[in-house]
Amino acid sequence: MTPPLDVLIVGAGPTGLALAAQLRAYGTRFRIVDRSLDRVRESRALGIQPRTLEALAGFGVTEELLARGNPAVGLRLHLRRRTVSVPLFDIGATDTPYPFLLFLSQAETESVLGEHLAARDVTVERGTELVRLERQGPYVDCLLRSRDGVEESVTARHVVGCDGAHSTVRTQAGIGFEGYAYPQTYLLADLEVDGLEPGAVHSYMTGGGMVFFFPLGSPAPWRMLAMRPSRAPEDKVTVPMLQGIAERYGAEGLVLRDPVWMTEFRLHNRGAARYRSGPFFLAGDAAHIHSPAGAQGMNTGIQDALNLGWKLALVCRDAAPEELLETYGAERAPVGRAVRRFTDRAFVIGTSPNPVLRFARERLVPRVAPLVKHATTLRRRVFRTVSELGIHYRRSPASTTGTRPPRRGPRAGDRLPDLPRGLQARTAAPGWHLLLAGPPHLWPDERLAPVLTGRAGLITVHRLGDRSPWPGVAQGLVRPDGHLGYVARGAGLDGLRAYTARWLPTGPTRHPEVNVDRP
Questions:
Q1: Which element (helix H / strand E) includes 126?
Q2: How many structural domains does the chain have?
Q3: What are 224-264's pLDDT values in tens digits?
Q4: 3-class SS at 133?
Q5: Same domain for 309 and 439?
Q6: Looking at residue 452, which CATH number applies to its domain?
Q7: Among residues of the chain, what percentage have pLDDT more than 90?
Q8: Helix count (H) and strand count (E) of the chain?
Q9: Residues 17 and 154 in one domain
Q10: Are residues 169 and 311 in the same domain?
């Protein structure tokens, strides 16, 4: 008899593929299915944020993403009488090895993640649809149907819905999906554009709306995003239509041609009522959908997956308590809500027909835009938000500060910055990483034994000396997703022992010898 799966992943977009990569790194028993016969070939999502590049580095895929992508750091605002150049990621990026927005189509991102899984003998079961879920005691009975109509019953301990806005997992788990639809219709096209300066994002703005051109590279040099004018006929999307809309919004002198893909769509802003219901979990678009403002959607989904994956892996191996799974929703639901608020505000400001906002776009923006490059505090704050480097879990039950917190440096729940440079690379391998700052003689093996005993292969120790994120003597325990679970000042280990006893317990029923792949 086939033993139950630890995890069934439903949906093989970027979110599902990232989750599969992390589960594979921990030797978890899982399957990943998707009703589509093939991965996406259109560009769809097109930007990878610095935090996502950091989070994927531990799997060894970030370098390939960089090789295929196009880093862009400039924005050209084309106003009525002038063009203003605004640097995007030149402020607030000193603590990351990836201080840029990487433009890469979703098709290429899925290709890289798929190749990573294939090299590790993971098969993405395409053309396989989830039909029904039913809880049976501690397990879930899952009915799958192949492209040929053959049905198969699979038993799993957990089911994760990475299956998009119309999620079958969310529907069958009885989780609400609350929100609203925007009234406007939007147009997308991947195509050639003559007359655009390469290597920058171009925005043309009028009181009536905006049109954007993003440097895509592949499958076409440019991605165009525009709002269909409110009184325009609902005709099929064509190049002449796009040309006319571009000129209407101020993009005169450009020549649009040779489209690879054109489509129109409506936007929604919705969020799941909860991210977990018993053995069912939601991630990515199954948990939150919103406008594409700020290139947040795919990135938030991948980071959902990488927050959840290691927790599922360790709980399934009895190396962590079931309570750890409750921290997934506690940590990621606030992020999803914040992204929905941020993208909604940006979207409304840029598109609303409200007379005040139309006036602001047409009259105030041309006056204020040249001053933006000098507003360093504002630009730093925007960068930390858009890049997702500012995401933290300080209020999470799994984030603990010792009785003597460090005076400076990252706090419990923060992502580990890449300071000193190369620190993230040292801590990228799967598992937990214990950072010890101060003279190495303070941290002999015998002092650390109470923390490490019974957790072999799960915690890696790094004695950093004076080259650490904190001044003086300090200790930090980095979680497998790159966030700090525990931080304290001084050489006392009582707080660290209490933290590991709660979240990484050992004992006769535990199996801490977790199998992890080390890149």
A1: strand 124-126
A2: 3
A3: 988 887 665 667 899 999 999 999 888 888 999 999 989 88
A4: strand
A5: no
A6: 3.40.30.120
A7: 64
A8: 14, 24
A9: yes
A10: yes
* CA 73 to each of CA 91, 99, 215, 258, 515: distance values in angstroms, whole numbers, following the listed order: 11, 9, 11, 26, 40
Residue scoring higher pLDDT (308 or 3): 308
Query: Same domain for 116 and 192?
Result: no
What lies within 8 Å, CB to CB, of 65 at 6+ separation is 48, 53, 56, 102, 104, 108, 109, 112
At which residue do the structure tokens 């009536």 appear? 208
Residue-wise burial string across 65-82, b where 16 or more C-beta atoms lie within 10 A, e elsewhere? bbebbbbbebbbbbbeee
Residue 75 resides in a domain? no
Q: Are 200 and 169 in a shared domain? A: no
Q: Is residue 346 part of a domain?
A: no
pLDDT score, position 483: 98
Query: Which structural domain, as residue segments, surrounds residue 439?
Result: 400-503
- The verdict on 211 and 314 lying in the same domain is no
Is 391 a domain residue? no
> What is the DSSP secondary-structure string of 46-108?
-EE-HHHHHHHGGGT-HHHHHHHSEEE-EEEEE-SS-EEEEESSSSS-TT-S--SEEE--HHH
CA–CA separation, 332 and 391 (whole Å): 10
What's CA 5's distance to the chain center, in Å?
A: 25
Instruction: Name the residue with tokens 């879930």.
Output: 140
Determine the average pLDDT of the residues in 39-62. 86
Q: Looking at 180-184, 493-497, 507-511, which range is the least confident one?
A: 507-511
Give the model confidence (pLDDT) of 21-49 as tens digits: 999 999 999 999 999 987 766 657 778 99
Q: Are 161 and 242 contained in the same domain? A: no
Q: Which of 225, 248, 266 is the last residue of a domain?
A: 266
